[in-house]
Predict the structure.
Amino acid sequence: MAETVGFIGLGIMGAPMARNLRQAGFEVVAWNRSPERLDAAVADGALRGESPADVARRAEVVVACVRQTEDVEAVLLGSDEWEGAIEGVRAGSVFVDMSTIAPAATRELARRVEARGGAMLDAPVSGGEQGAVAGTLSIMVGGTPEALDRARPMLEAMGARITHCGPSGAGQTVKLCNQIAVVLNNLAMAEALVFCQRSGVDPSTMLEAISAGAAGSWQISNLGPKVVERDFAPGFKVGLQQKDLRLALEAADELHVPLAGTSLVHQLFASVERSHGGDAGTQALVTAIEALAGVEVGRPLD
């Protein structure tokens, strides 16, 4: 008989991740704050959970993929509107948080789960909507090796690379490192494209030339062509990127670590949010550089 896995949070990432669990042979009992997304998941084959607590009572391993720290706290600990998943935690339970939240908050939540006899993994992901759909996410895990072994079959249904980063909170720390590197690569791509356009060289040719060399990156190969085509549809939204950068900058401040480049990108994204809104894709960072330079990438060259 197929094992039942709980899944809480059916957004742009969570819905395809839950679908991949079902396609891997797991029975999925799901819950989402907005009923429309839950209805869609049930129509796609999931079982309906009545609350986070109901999901946790029906599944030993529960996955959560929500927006921010406060949302994880609400689905785990409960709110005025629903009973939290922690009410269903028991010996053998593993709560897997695949959201990106503050490392310190993760450690406190893990202590709450452990006090009920369960275990918690922080397992944030990289790879965006494309990776969630394809089941090729990179998953960064914090927690005990034993809890990871228990949840590994579920994680393997959603990701191509699973890395145990250390104890509770280590997965979130590594995810913030990922976001620091990602946004600085995004900035480098944006500046290269704007410089190329202003110089009178075809930016598509430039991207082709540098993508296979030392300057190559995921951003150059995947986001660069979208910028040239003026396609700012989100694979990962600016608003979510800003949330992650706030987490990184707050954690760095606690550690007295300067993140000058990350802080700059955070401010540039604030300009993008004002001009294009938080739902634009992160490749829209280029528009902030374009505004400063007075040039638009992809315009016909004079």
User: Anything to note?
Assistant: The mean pLDDT is 96. The chain has two domains: 4-167, 174-293.
